[in-house]
Amino acid sequence: MRSFGSDNNSGVHPRILEALIEANSGHAVAYGDDPWTAEAVGVVRELLGEESIEPFFLFNGTGANVVALQASTLPFHSILCAATAHIAVDECGAPVKLTGASLKEIDTPDGKLTPERVRPLLHGFGFEHHSQPKVIAISQTTELGTLYTPAEIRALADLAHAHEMFLFVDGTRIANACAQLGISLREMTIDCGVDIFTLGGTKNGLMFGEALVPLREELAQHIRYYRKQTTQLYSKMRYIASQFIPYLREGIWLENARRSNMAAQMLYREMRSVKGIEITQKVESNALFFILPKRITDRLRERYFFYDWDERRNEMRLVCSWDTTEADIRQFSDYLKQLTADS
Hints:
By secondary structure, the protein is of the alpha/beta class. It has helices at residues 14-23, 35-48, 61-72, 86-89, 94-99, 115-118, 150-162, 174-181, 185-188, 217-220, 223-229, 238-249, 252-271, 294-301, 326-342; strands at residues 56-58, 77-82, 102-106, 132-139, 166-170, 196-199, 210-214, 278-279, 287-291, 307-310, 315-319.
């Protein structure tokens, strides 16, 4: 069944499947000491223009986020994030359990942190009765489908560094942000002062796997050990790493993101004409949030799978994938228009 439930629901890009098959030949040394992992590391370095960077490959987004935060904190630290952040809402408390640090959730109207929203939490430094602020964590794109501009990221990085803190970017959908803004991965990270970020792939055409990229030597120092302790070290690493070679080198990461972004824009154009609809967020990537009467969305759900976002308001989320087609959008929007016309 094709749906707008999540970009996790889509299949694997054919070229990625080819890369997996190509890696599935003969024997290779385990735990990343194989030629595919070495090549994938080189591809990330090429993309960022930094030979000193050491990316790490992990199973999934939650694991990558947890390892990044373990590398950035001690148990008496705190992590500042939006109240809607994935690390706060959808990771079953894993960041707190595995770092010992506390999460300080900040309410936002659009999922985005700003220096003005963060500053009130920057207190208690050196006071032993308070957890010590250490990380500003943002999602790019946010869980509400909005994105940060490079200037907005730089402002948060400058604020973090002024207080001897780190800026972490959960980049599960960072490809969508780069595609939407027409900028490189380096411009989105290194040039903005980001200290550590994840580079997602599972939501954008990979079968599995994420990359974690520390941009400061002190953050890279112990990641290999955190990765092992957090059960994110895959013995047959070549199967994760081999996907990233064509994904990054052949531009699949950007092309897939452009496709899902363009599909969301088409969906937005169709949804705007739906009778009685309220679209609640800017459509800046591959997600769309809307409100309609529950009797309508209940009937819509009989045919299509999608998630509630805010049940109190009957706010729903739709997500386009790299393989979402024009026909998918037409069929969905035509059916929804029929439902609203009949109500």
